[in-house]
Specification:
The protein has 682 residues and is of the alpha+beta class. Among the domains are: 84 residues, Phosphorylase Kinase, domain 1 (2-Layer Sandwich), CATH 3.30.200.20; 182 residues, Orthogonal Bundle (Transferase(Phosphotransferase), domain 1); 51 residues, Trypsin Inhibitor V, Chain A. Strands 1-2-3-4-6-5 form a six-stranded antiparallel β-sheet, with helices on one face. A four-stranded antiparallel β-sheet has the order 28-27-30-31, with no helix packed on it. A hairpin with a 3-residue loop joins strand 2 and strand 3. Helix 3 packs antiparallel against helix 6, helix 3 packs antiparallel against helix 10 and helix 6 packs antiparallel against helix 9. The two termini are 34 Å apart. The relative contact order is 0.06. Its EC number is 2.7.11.1. It catalyses: L-seryl-[protein] + ATP = O-phospho-L-seryl-[protein] + ADP + H(+); L-threonyl-[protein] + ATP = O-phospho-L-threonyl-[protein] + ADP + H(+). Keywords: ATP-binding, Kinase, Membrane, Nucleotide-binding, Serine/threonine-protein kinase, Transferase, Transmembrane, Transmembrane helix.
Length: 682
């Protein structure tokens, strides 16, 4: 797109700011609000790619939900002549990647300040259930005052959709992707926390922790190689600050911070003297679920000293004989007592041996149910078998907290004693609950909204006038019918009819063209402009209008406005006026006539047939561009809504040397064009 091009009659291109995997970004001037903006334009090679267009729309929709001073604002989203674009806040500065290069080393207090601003923006996104999935310094802008702005929210995770097959897109993000994203698992808020940890590492050291010749080699390091120490690079970095890096980048998401706010709070105190002697953060090794070998404690059931017990009877017999010889009268009673105690002692010993045997056998026949919650189903089954237990039934249950294929809980419960061979039943996550949505065009918005909110969706509404649908009926929806979405993080937006409203026209006399356009956008009417010589109004000011001031027209209707050329001057090259009559063909939109109220939960038998995206009602929105002495082809001359083949008269004013042009655009495609309009040919 060349410098000076005016996009949609409003945004004048100043120059290119950069390019990405599927879009180019330009600096532009908003001609109405007189401010600089950034225009992100879907690249030409992606304009016929429905997946790329859908992802572009998703990014715009995600970003418009967020309201945070550290997130780049979205001003406008539109499509013209097949070009999808979004208009964003322009940040006069550089991205964080270049900022680190230009300012390294960065003072630790400034590091904390930068990261706190980034965390504030990411936390706002997470509050709206939006996972960035592509946090990296290139997506973080720093203005000339050090103020942080994050952009590119809502990008699809790496490894999906066509643009991810581009080498530069993978290489550009692989340095910051979490291990679970690299493995193809679902990205969560803790995946963004991992990326924040890598960004913090880069701010502190000026480089990324893992590098390699290929994306695959870098991915393997993210998954298997321990995080390098920032203190090895700079021993002055406080251990508490290094601990923030280590905890945020733990390989297992469960070992990371649970929320971005938790990470920000920890980082905020990392320079405090009270944490000067903090030990290095380490991840506790996984608990060993294999039972220890049974140990038998040595003991003697017959006495404390087995040797003396064995020698006892011989010694006692010898002493008894001597005693009997000395005192013959006491010999018989002592023999009886000795025999009785020997029998009692023997019985007691046998009982103790039996009890000990029972205890040992009983202990050897039991085991402990291992901890399997949060582990992959295959790993859980291996743990259960290693504990001499049997895998019982495996049931699947949707979960927004536990990743797909990971165990939610077991029965019997973990760490309980059970007999060996006991069956352990597992409940495994099937991922987030997904609900099948339908085509709701033409239905009552309030009824559909209640039904979808009962399923857990967030539902947004935008109003638009319509002569085809009565007030409260749905005109358009921003999602494709026949698709399944997770209600926990999906917002569904509907365009809802307000019926036909009437507008009482303001007196436009004396206004500039820009003021007329601003007023027309506000009250939703369509102005058409003509130019006349006038002695009453200076050049560029409105001379008259039709309908007149204080008259009533339908919202979306047309108002003709005549703008002054200034006083008439003598000229040999006289302007000639003539009309060109054209008939604009009407295109019947068959998809809007169908209405599917499908709404079933994931897992129901059968798949609902996928309908095309509804483009709205049976109305055609048509844009007419006209070039003559007073009009430029880059600006919309007239916007119309038609419901049948419609005849239109185009007024031209040309000198003898000028050639006029016109074109008619519907749904981003030019359907009529004439590049050689002259007075003589008509």
């Amino acid at each position: 797109m060349n410098k000076g091009y005016v996009l949609n009659g409003r945004y004048e291109i100043i120059g290119r700011l950069g390019e990405g995997g599927m879009a180019d970004v330009y600096l532009a001037e908003d001609l109405i609000l007189k401010r600089k903006v950034a225009v992100k334009l879907l690249r030409l090679d992606f304009r016929d790619n429905p997946k790329a267009k859908k992802r572009f729309q998703h990014e715009a929709m995600a970003a418009t939900q967020l309201d945070n001073p550290h997130i780049v604002g979205i001003y406008d989203v539109d499509e013209v002549e097949g070009m999808q674009y979004l208009v964003m806040e322009f940040v006069d500065g550089e991205d964080l990647k270049k900022y680190i290069k230009d300012n390294f080393p960065i003072p630790y207090a400034e590091v904390v300040n930068i990261m706190e601003q980034i965390c504030s923006a990411v936390s706002e996104a997470h509050r709206h259930n939006i996972i960035h999935r592509d946090l990296k310094p290139q997506n973080i802008l720093v203005d000339k005052h050090g103020y942080i702005k994050i952009t590119d929210f809502g990008i699809s995770r790496a490894g999906t959709e066509d643009t991810m097959t581009q080498t530069r897109s993978i290489i550009g993000s692989i340095h910051y992707l979490s291990p679970e994203q690299i493995k193809g698992q679902m990205a969560t808020a803790r995946s963004d926390i991992y990326s924040l940890g890598i960004i913090l590492y880069e701010i502190l050291t000026g480089k990324v922790p893992f590098n390699g010749d290929t994306a695959v080699s870098i991915a393997i390091k993210h998954s298997q190689t321990p995080m390098p120490s920032v203190r090895d690079f700079d021993p002055r970095i406080p251990q508490a600050m290094e601990n923030v890096v280590l905890k945020a980048t733990a390989k297992n998401p469960d070992d990371r911070y649970q929320t971005v706010n938790e990470m920000a709070a920890d980082l905020n105190t990392s320079l405090d003297k009270s944490r000067a002697n903090e030990p290095k953060f380490t991840v506790a090794p996984p608990e060993d679920t294999v039972n220890e070998a049974t140990r038998v404690m040595p003991f003697s059931p017959l006495g404390e000293n087995p040797a003396s017990a064995d020698a006892g009877p011989a010694k006692q017999n010898s002493e008894s004989a001597n005693a009997d010889q000395a005192n013959p009268t006491k010999k018989a009673p002592k023999k009886k007592r000795r025999r009785r105690w020997l029998i009692i002692g023997g019985i007691a010993g046998v009982v103790l041996i039996i009890l000990a045997f029972i205890m040992i056998v009983s202990a050897n026949g039991k085991t402990t149910v291992p901890v399997v919650s949060g582990t992959l189903e295959t790993d859980a089954e291996a743990k259960i078998k290693a504990a001499d237990l049997t895998v019982g039934t495996v049931k699947y249950q949707s979960s927004d907290k536990i990743d797909r294929h990971r165990v939610i809980h077991s029965t019997p419960k973990e760490e309980t004693k059970v007999k060996k061979g006991t069956k352990v039943n597992l409940v495994v996550s099937s991922g987030p609950r997904k609900v099948l949505v339908g085509n709701y065009v033409g239905q009552e918005y309030d009824v559909v909204k209640q039904k979808l909110e009962d399923e857990g969706f967030t539902v947004h509404k935008r109003n638009a006038p319509s002569s085809s649908f009565r007030s409260g009926r749905i005109l358009q929806q921003d999602f494709q019918s026949g698709k399944r979405f997770n209600p926990a993080n999906k917002t569904l937006t509907f365009m809802v009819s307000t019926g036909v409203k009437r507008i009482t026209l303001k007196d436009l006399t004396g206004m500039t063209k820009a003021q007329v356009v601003s007023y027309s956008n506000k009250v939703e009417i369509n102005p058409t402009f003509d130019y006349v010589y006038s002695d009453d109004q200076p050049k560029g000011r409105v001379v008259r209008q039709s309908p007149n001031a204080n008259e009533s027209i339908q919202q979306g209707g047309n108002v003709a406005v005549w703008i002054s050329r200034g006083p008439k001057k003598d000229s040999s090259d006289e302007l000639k006026s003539f009309n060109v009559r054209i008939t604009i063909p009407y295109l019947q939109n068959t998809s809007a006539a169908t209405s599917d109220s499908t709404l079933t939960e994931s897992g129901a038998s059968g798949e609902a047939s996928s309908a095309d995206d509804s483009s709205g009602s049976n109305e055609n929105v048509v844009l007419i561009y006209l070039k003559d002495h007073d009009h430029s082809l880059s600006n919309v001359y007239k916007q119309m809504v038609i419901t049948k083949d419609t005849q239109v008269i185009l007024p031209f004013k040309l000198t003898g040397n000028e050639v006029g042009k016109y074109k008619v655009v519907r749904d981003g495609k030019t359907i009529m064009r004439d590049n050689n309009v002259t007075y003589d040919s008509h």
